[in-house]
Amino acid sequence: MPHKIPDYVAKYLLDRMIAQLPDEVLExxxxxxxxxxxxxxxxxxxxxxxxxxxxLVTFSIH
Amino acid sequence: MTDAPVAELETSSTRIRRELAAAVGPLTAACTAxxxxxxxxxxxxxxxxxxxxxxxxxxxxxxxxxxxxRALSDPLREPLAAYLEEHVDEELDHDxxxxxDLELLGLDRERVLGRMPPPSVAALVGGQYYWxxxxxxxxxxxxxxxxxxxxxxxxxxxxxxxRTGHPKESFRTFSQHAELDPGHxxxxxETLNALPLGEPEESAIVESARTTAVLAARAVSExx
Lengths: 62, 224
Description:
Chain A is an all-alpha fold. Chain A has helices spanning about 5-15, 25-30, 35-50. Chain B is an all-alpha fold.
């Protein structure tokens, strides 16, 4: 069933460039208040500032 | 001593690899999403089935390219045919190895072979047949460049084994490619640099590689 995603949650997902999210995680995110989302954003920014980059992988076998 | 212009020092493989690096983004996104997926354990056998559907076509595709190359009347005929002959040997029985790995994960051969490959796989492989038969078999080198250009690393295999909880023996084909494909990639690069490639041939290889990146990414994304 589609979730009603609050604007501030949608903005958070967009800002963090999160395109694929498990339903279970989205169910939690949509229950958070704007203040709680702001807290998540601060944690994300702290990871960015600490230089913790997402580990991208590319692989193929032939 | 005067430095030669950079463009004169560039080889075909350097130019093609640079174009590949710019085009591989969708495949990187799909691979990363797979590895980070919370249901990776269940998705991994699906990914291997997908890889089998692709890899089972490698030797027939190479043989089709070889047959067309032998019918050419241009300077590429001899050196390209020599490479493709060797490439058949490099790729023989890899599909069988994947079936063995899948059996270790509980998927028997008949079940895997009985599944119809999705349109994305048909497009990925079928496009190569089209270019081989209706354009020029040299385009197939772009497919090989992409597919062999990004072999799994030992570190990645460790990560996959830990995250999926699947037995290490079921990563045998992946481990073999981690070991073999860097050498195969070097073999292709040496071939690209030795072939008498003009701009149209290089463009065909790059277009084929770009298309391979997009369609391989689509195929992986569809199982997520």
